[in-house]
């Protein structure tokens, strides 16, 4: 499965993010990947802080959307292009002031052209999740006759 | 009867992520997100990041509530349907209040690019209103 490509090197994980201009602009980083799931981190920065001192909800939505995409990627057997069809974010509370946000998202199932994701956002750390402050669910749609994602066509069996 | 209590320009200043994205008023009830390279999600087709579209829709909804006189609104939930690829061009947004209650408001938002009749995304959210 494709997750092995990301799992195998920090450079691959970094490249995946830096090729997405907005994710690179926000400073996202891919903390961990496994089959069908991932952990992404959005470092705290004052310019993205909301009135209460935590990261803005919009930035959290962008992180969760991106983590959903990575979770789908980590479920694929071979490189396939896909896009977000729908995304729902529920905010239990605001992210803690001055803290990094972690998105922990899994792809529940990939069936036909649909991939369904679920996940949470918290202000814990890389190893230890904190209490979730937001939940996400979404559907991604695979493009059947598309170019492979990135340059993975050159990778052969990953 | 409810007169806007916050000037339209100030409304966006109260939403830091809206300012970061560069969201601006285009017309009375229409917001514009000018295209920028660092808003791209899919570098191959130059499409806007799904998270940018979601954030812009959400900011438009909260902006509407602030403009309608809510002193603060926090997002309880927000759902986005991605209808068409959002390409490398400006995005326009219009929010409509479905209901503004005492504690909760429900807002719908549509986003389009070249043609308002061909929306690229639709959002729907519930917001908790904070009393002053």
From TrEMBL, chain A:
**Which CDD domains does the entry mention?**
PaaI_thioesterase (cd03443)
Q: Which organism is it from?
A: Immundisolibacter cernigliae
Locate the Thioesterase domain: which residues?
53-119
Keyword list, A-Z: Hydrolase
* NCBIfam families in alphabetical order: unchar_dom_1
Q: Which terms does the record give in the GO molecular function aspect?
A: acyl-CoA hydrolase activity
One Pfam family name from the record?
A: 4HBT
Name under which the protein is recorded:
Thioesterase domain-containing protein
Query: What high-level taxonomic lineage is stated for the organism?
Result: Bacteria, Pseudomonadati, Pseudomonadota, Gammaproteobacteria, Immundisolibacterales
UniProtKB/TrEMBL annotation, chain B:
Thioesterase domain location: 46-115
Task: Alphabetically list the UniProt keywords.
Answer: Hydrolase
Keyword hit for Isomerase:
no
A single Gene Ontology molecular function, please?
acyl-CoA hydrolase activity
InterPro entries, per the entry: HotDog_dom_sf, PAAI_dom, Thioestr_dom
NCBIfam families, per the entry: unchar_dom_1 (TIGR00369)
Instruction: Specify the protein name.
Output: Thioesterase domain-containing protein
């Amino acid at each position: 499965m494709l997750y092995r490509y990301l799992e195998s090197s920090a450079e691959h994980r970094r490249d995946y993010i830096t090729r997405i201009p907005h994710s690179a602009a926000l400073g996202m980083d891919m903390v961990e990947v496994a089959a069908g799931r991932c952990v992404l981190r959005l470092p705290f920065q004052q310019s993205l802080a909301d009135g209460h001192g935590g990261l803005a909800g919009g930035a959290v939505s962008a992180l969760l959307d991106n983590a959903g995409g990575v979770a789908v990627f980590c479920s694929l057997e071979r490189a396939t292009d896909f896009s977000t069809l729908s995304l729902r974010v529920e905010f239990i509370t605001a992210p803690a002031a001055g803290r990094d946000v972690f998105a922990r998202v899994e792809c529940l199932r990939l069936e036909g052209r649909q991939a369904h994701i679920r996940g949470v956002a918290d202000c814990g750390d890389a190893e230890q999740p904190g209490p979730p402050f937001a939940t996400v669910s979404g559907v991604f749609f695979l493009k059947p006759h598309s170019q492979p994602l990135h340059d993975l066509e050159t990778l052969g069996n990953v | 009867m409810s007169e806007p209590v916050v000037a339209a320009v100030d409304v966006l200043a109260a939403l830091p992520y809206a300012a970061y994205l560069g969201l601006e008023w285009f017309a009375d009830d229409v917001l514009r997100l000018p295209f920028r390279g660092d808003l791209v999600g899919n570098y191959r087709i130059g499409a806007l990041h799904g998270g940018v579209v979601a954030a812009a829709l959400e900011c438009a909804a909260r902006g509407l509530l602030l403009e309608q006189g809510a002193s603060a609104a926090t997002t309880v939930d927000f759902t986005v349907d991605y209808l068409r690829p959002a390409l490398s061009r400006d995005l326009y947004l219009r929010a409509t209040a479905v209901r503004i209650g005492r504690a909760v408001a429900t807002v719908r938002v549509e986003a389009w690019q070249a043609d308002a009749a061909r929306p690229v995304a639709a959002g729907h959210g519930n917001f908790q209103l904070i009393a002053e």
